[in-house]
Amino acid sequence: MPRSNVIILTDPESDLSWHQNQVTVLPIRGEYFRDKLMLQRIRSYIIFLEIKLEKLSQEQGRITHFIFTDSDIAVIDDLGQIFEKYQDFHLALTFRNNKDQPLNSGFIAVRGTRDGILRAKNFLEKVLEAYSSRYMKASRMLGDQLALFWVVKSDASFDAKRFSKAHAFTKEIGGASVLFLPCATYNWTPPEGAGQFHGMPLDVKVVHFKGSRKRLMLEAWNYFSSSTDISDMLCLILKSGRTKYDF
After folding, report:
1. Of 107, 114, 105, 22, nearest to 61 (Cα)?
2. Are 102 and 93 a contacting pair, CB within 8 Å?
3. 194: CB partners within 8 A, 6+ apart
4. DSSP codes, the chain
5. Tens digits of residue pLDDT in 214-227
6. Is 112 in contact with 64 (CB distance < 8 Å)?
7. pLDDT digits over 58-98, tens only?
8. How far apart are CA 167 and CA 188, in angstroms?
9. Which domain of life is it from (predicted)?
10. Residue 238: pLDDT band by 50, 70, 90 thresholds?
11. What angle do CA 221, 110, 213 make, to 5 degrees?
12. Angle at the Cα of 121 from the Cα atoms of 118 and 125, rounded to 5 degrees
């Protein structure tokens, strides 16, 4: 995505000296304690959207869409098509066929219109409230995902069975039009199993190196960058093992 800009949300104390075009570091004050890290991330997303909402009023006519991702994610295709193909959503989440944790918070897309930013911010505020009131004792890496699902399933008309099929769909949730995208394409995780040979589906646009898979990020990215076709990555051996924090 050569026209995109990368914004790193971090704490004010961290020294991230970054000398690369189209990369900006945005420090946000908050509680960056280990047991509150995911809670703070939601707060940081909300603050970021508030900043963009204010700037939008000063930049009439200019629309910039936003995608929040984990730092262990690699984008390997142009995600701008999401906003063109699905034109009626305010924010997008990714789902998988998992009864207790169907939503993964590692990828959240927000339409850059005033209405899109405002409704996405309001939605995340509901998630923050659910996290603070219900899931503070959850594992430090799970609270936000459980809170996301709580907000979604609190809508009486929502049918969680739709998560069983890897097809995108849109649903009005808490005043926001939410686009649900399958993890198989937009938040794909390399299969588990040390030393096993695994292929990569050709329609994958986002790769999520969860848990111990993080050690494969540089190798996989260099391999992908040096190849001429995404299908070449089908030959990559992903030597990943399951870990306690593999969510």
Report:
1. 114
2. no
3. 239, 240, 241
4. -TT--EEEEE-TT-------TTEEEEE--S---GGGHHHHHHHHHHHHHHHHHHHHTTSTT----EEEE-TTEEE-S-TTHHHHH--S-SEEEEE-S-SS--EEEEEEEE--SHHHHHHHHHHHHHHHHHHHHH-TTS-TTTHHHHHHHHHHHTSTT--GGGGGS---EEEEETTEEEEEEEHHHHSB-PPPBTT------TT--EEE--GGGGGGHHHHHHHHHH-SSGGGGGG----B---TT--
5. 877 887 778 777 77
6. yes
7. 777 778 999 999 999 988 889 999 999 999 999 999 999 99
8. 14
9. Eukaryota
10. very low
11. 30
12. 140
* pLDDT confidence of residue 141: 76
